[in-house]
Amino acid sequence: MTDAAPLTLLDAAHAALNADPENEALRLRFYERLADGEVFLLLEREAEGETLEPRLFDLEAGSFVLVFDREERLAEFSGGIAPYAALPGRVIAGLLRGQGIGLGVNLGVAPSEMLLPAEAMDWLAETLDAAPEAAEGLPERFLAPKGLPEALVSGLDAKLARAGGLASGALLSAVIWQGGRRGHLLAFLDAAPGAETALAGAAREALVFSGIEAGEIDVVFLHGADPAAVAMARVALRFDLPEPVREDPAAPAAPGMDPDRPPRLI
Q: Which of 106, 129, 238, 254 is an S-S bond match for 110, by CB 3.0 to 4.6 Å?
């Protein structure tokens, strides 16, 4: 391993886990970093349309495909230029789900090198695919959020920082529902049409990867001028989502970048 470049987010998450391998919260943080980041999947040959053929390595622990969190690390492992696909880790987890294939991360070229077995990739894909449950209720009173773990608040902040353009902001408060049930409520303000599923999924992932067992946060979608939003804003913790970045028309997207046309493995 000769990588002398600054550590990546994945390196840092891996180092924290190595220092305390029994810490489940740190293990979840590593998987979250892997899922949310872009990685470079080593291919057998250049992609054809939406079809990818990863280079498969048969090791004592099973069959693995390899990813790297920097192009330079992939080139170092390969000894030069090699075909690859740049994909979010969550897409690769979905592709490997049920295939009996594990994931090798930064093997031989970084401090974050790790072999993740097929079962780990199945778990990650299932965790990312789980849908929030719908529920109904009427709030009676909003209160300042209290007792929420810092891991959850920072996780929400990180997730929503990548949701630019999907909503104008979000409010997090404690809530008392009709009937006396207490909990916490996350309200997305002025959500873009069709963005509700993605926003609710981001909130659910922040909860799951924060390591809170049996945790729960209710999610609603409000207009900023709604009376409930105005009442929440008086006591809530506010998250400001970034403005969407306007880009010039781009060339056709690489495989895996269009969620409606996921790549296929061969």
A: 106
